[in-house]
Every structure is written in C-alpha cells, then in structure tokens.
Amino acid sequence: MSNKYYLPDTLKNWKWPRQISPDHVEVRAASAEWLRSLKAFSPRAQDAFDRCEFSKSQDHPFLTSSWAQLLPGLLACMTYPFHDKARLRTGCDFMNMVFVFDEYTDRATAEEAQVYADIAMDALRNPHVPRPKGEWIGGEVTRHQLRRFLKRACKQAADRNRGHIRNIEEYIEARRETIGGAPAFALVELGMNLPDEAVNHPVIEELSMLATDMIWVANVGEEDRRSRAMDWVGEHHKKLEARFMKIYENDIPKFGEPVDSELAQYVDGFAIWVRGNDQWNFESGRYFGSKAQEIQKTRCATLLPKARAEDYDVGPQHVDDSKL
C-alpha cells in the first residue's frame, strides 16, 4: 500500500484570496509572549513552539518568525485581517487559549478534560448565571458559545477513552462544535453594531454553519490522509461551497443601511475564515513543516508513521519533514 496521498484543492475556485493583517508581526508577537509567560507547555514542547524557522519567499515574505508567532497568532491574523490592533490582539489571545485547551484535551481522559473545562469556564464571570437583562448581548453570546465548545471537547475525550466511533451524522455534529467556529465567528463581529435579527436570521445562521463545515472538512484533509477520506473531503466540500455561494449571491436578507453594509462584512468574515484556515494549515508548518509550500502546490505528500501520544509532551511537536 502506497504511503503517498493527494490533498484535494478544495478552494481552487474560492473567490476570497489569502489576506493578513498589516499589524500581524507586532500583534501576534505580543500575544505569543503572553502565552509563553504562562508556561503552558513543557520546555521541550515550548522549544518546538519557539524554534521552527521559515525562510522568506516571494509568495510568503512574512514567514520569518517562530512557531510561537506562526501557530495561533498567524491564524488570527489571517482570519481577522481588517481588525485594528486591539481587536486583532483579542483574536490572537483567543486562538492561543483555544490552542492550549485543544492540546491538553487531546491527551486528557474524560475526567481530566472536564476539570480543564470547569477551570476555563470558572475563569469567566459566573458563566453559568445568565447575564443581566438589558446587558450587551456579547456577554451572553460568549458565555454560550465557549461553553458549547468546552462541553463538546469533553465529549470528544470521552469518545476517545471508550474507543467510540460516531456515525457520520454524529461526527459532523460533533465537529461543528469542536472546531470552534461559533466563538471564532463571534470575533468577526467586533466593532460592528448588528442587531440580533440580522445575526440570528436563518440565512445568516446557515452561512455560518456552511463555513464552519468547510473549515473542519479542510482539517480532516490535513489530519486523516487515507485515500477514501481525501475523496470524501473533496466531494463534500464541493457541495458545501456550492450551497454557500448560492445563498451568498442570492439570498442574504436586507435590513437597510447601515446594517446591510455591516452584515456584508460579517458574512465575508465567514468566507475569509475558510480561506485563512486552509492557508494556515500550510503556512504554519503544523502539518507539513518546511515542505508546506511545496506540498501546497503539488498537493502530494507522504503519510508519516503514526506516533504514540505517550512519546510526546503536551503541546506542539517538531515535524520530521525529511520523510514527507
């Protein structure tokens, strides 16, 4: 059986190009330093986070930073490219938080994952108590969206402990939660003044769900590289993209200005996230190391032997790209 596999070019016709914030270097570096100061990882894992260097290229001239800046910070800078520095820092810090939680729960038992979730939720202001009536809706949105993400991560840990494999419908439902699309999209809205009836309109909610599905489907392509999985990724993504574009071009509701302009930016934010996530899968070096640009162009890579979790510390790992 060949260990070569082909990655479908799911965004070949996606109309939203790669973008990055002009403040990306300064903001993601500050956020990375904040994460480093928390000592969330062991020295070995932190070293992997800090040491991976990229050379400049014509296509990606900014890739001269460490993983500490390239991992969550790069993702935020590519998915919130129009935020000012303060809002971009919020995005970077949020991505760092999710990244740390994801790294720990990937190794955790169901009980340990629940402890992590309880601690994360307790760090918010009384997260299990509904926000006061009349308060800005953002507090309640954050409380609900983060809670669902943490709850689903705990279920994922429990499934892993029990060796439980979900059917495709259950898997899709679970991935929509664990990918973190809802809280990530909430940050797209920073600085906007959209009414609830616009954000919660069924058409907008469907666009959000379709974008979320395209994001986790792309991640399946990077994480599960068997040929049948690749075929499924390509075909399913085509259906999601076609549905998204049909709604985007014909069915976005109108509320009058200035809501319509902000709503258009909000929906574009979903699409920018789809592109940014896919681009980050390559540019971060997380999956393909220094061969990422080559693999992104050829779409061909080599499946590495499966590693044992017990051989690694919690946190990012070096990719042995000599075998890719």
UniProtKB/TrEMBL annotation:
Pfam family, one: Terpene_syn_C_2
InterPro entries: Isoprenoid_synthase_dom_sf (IPR008949)
Name of this protein: Isoprenoid synthase domain-containing protein
UniProt lineage: Eukaryota, Fungi, Dikarya, Basidiomycota, Agaricomycotina
